Amino acid sequence: MPIRVLLVEDSAVALIILKRILSTSQDISVVGTARTGKEALTLVPTVQPDVICTDFYMPQMNGLEFIQEVMVLYPRPILVISASVQSDDTQNVFQLLNAGAVDVFPKPKTGLASDYELIGQELIQKIKVLAGVKVFTKHRKSQPFVSQNRLSITPPTPISRTILSPPQPFVGSPAKVFGVYSKTIKILAIGASTGGPQALHTILTQFPSNFPVPIVCVQHISEGFLPGLVSWLNGECHLSIKIATVGELPQPGSVYFAPDGHHLEFSLSGRFTYSNAPPLAGHRPAVTRTLESVAEFYGASAAGVLLTGMGRDGADGMKAISDHGGLTIAQNQESSVVFGMPAEAIALGAAQYILSVNEIAPFLLNRVKSLI
User: Fold this and answer.
1) What is the predicted pLDDT for the residue at 147?
2) In this predicted model, what pLDDT tens digit does every residue of 4-55 receive, in sequence order?
3) CA triplet 15, 19, 23: central angle to 5 degrees?
4) Buried b (16+ CB within 10 A) or exposed e, 75-84
5) Whole-angstrom distance, CA of residue 367 vs CA of residue 361
6) Are 280 and 288 in contact (CB under 8 A)?
7) pLDDT by residue (tens digit) across 46-67?
8) pLDDT tens-digit profile of 195-248?
9) What's the 3-state SS for the chain?
10) What is the residue-averaged pLDDT of the chain?
11) pTM of the predicted model, to two decimals?
12) Catalytic residue positions?
């Protein structure tokens, strides 16, 4: 059955071009069009789209307002197709993702039909990916993505201590279990893909500025968008968020992202290095390569977390950390936008704990609280 798409676009020309592009795929059917968010909101329960593609700036109700309403009333995977979500539109992009959009797709800056045609197959593929994405209802009165109480940094006290025998994973609240190994954590490595910016926001905003170990992140993201992600998170978190630089020694209280186009690794002295080795699982930077390097240098003192994402990048890296005696956590299916990467790690026996995205930070704070 074709993927049912609702197009929301105030430009008649852009609407015609988008319909023409999508009509070239037998797997996609445009079941409705609207010129404003307000008009589209009335169509959603009628046409029942699998994916909604919306512009950002529109009269009456703009794309951001429309997304907020959809995610409360009729949660659907939403792709923002706009000239205002270029790589330098940091505020727009992450505000939209924060509201519930799954991804963004920049329109050609020229607006020419010929330039739209060049990105046609990429757009079709992105819609196919979104059709398999899970979304969550957002409640109007719930906390927005920016945690209002993130200054409260006292970690919760564990109720009990249970020793597990890896690779059998623990599933559930971290308050019921405390510790697989007694080794001190000296670094935290996190990998993510689709849905990762939101998941990283949820986790990193819960950490205090004096979080006692460095954090290394690898996020699959379109080239050019990484500086915007780093800037956004840096403004939201107590931690210092930056892109790792060659020769830098990772410091507590800082979060380091792998750069565009390079694998992030560690030298023999524990400093960051870049590698131009071929992509792994189609990715460079690859989560697995960074996690393997973390495992090689830090051994049992490493902690690895694999978040929502498509594919299997990171699974082998998690296994490397686990095999070296480190701590490993996979995000659970219920809170993952795409349960691909975490599922692969679990299937490999590489995940010692399976936790919801909201449980990961409190669990880790428990593990390092004696160092704070």
Assistant:
1) 30
2) 999 999 999 999 999 999 999 999 999 999 999 999 999 999 999 999 999 9
3) 175
4) ebbbbbbbbb
5) 10
6) yes
7) 999 999 999 999 999 999 999 9
8) 999 999 999 999 999 999 999 999 999 888 999 999 999 999 999 999 999 999
9) CCEEEEEECCCHHHHHHHHHHHCCCCCEEEEEEECCHHHHHHHHHHHCCCEEEECCCCCCCCHHHHHHHHHHHCCCCEEEEECCCCCCCHHHHHHHHHHCCCEEEECCCCCCHHHHHHCHHHHHHHHHHHCCCCCCCCCCCCCCCCCCCCCCCCCCCCCCCCCCCCCCCEECCHHHCCCCCCCCCCEEEEEECCCHHHHHHHHHCCCCCCCCCCEEEEECCCCCCHHHHHHHHHHHCCCEEEECCCCCCCCCCEEEECCCCCEEEECCCCCEEEECCCCECCECCCHHHHHHHHHHHHHHHEEEEECCECCCCCHHHHHHHHHCCCEEEEECCCCCCCECHHHHHHHCCCCCEEECHHHHHHHHHHHHHHHC
10) 88
11) 0.82
12) 193, 220, 313
Q: Which amino acid is at 312?
A: R
Residues 6+ positions from 78 with CB-CB distance below 8 Å? 51, 52, 53, 54, 67, 70, 71, 100, 101, 102, 130, 135
Q: Above 70 in pLDDT, residue 151?
A: no
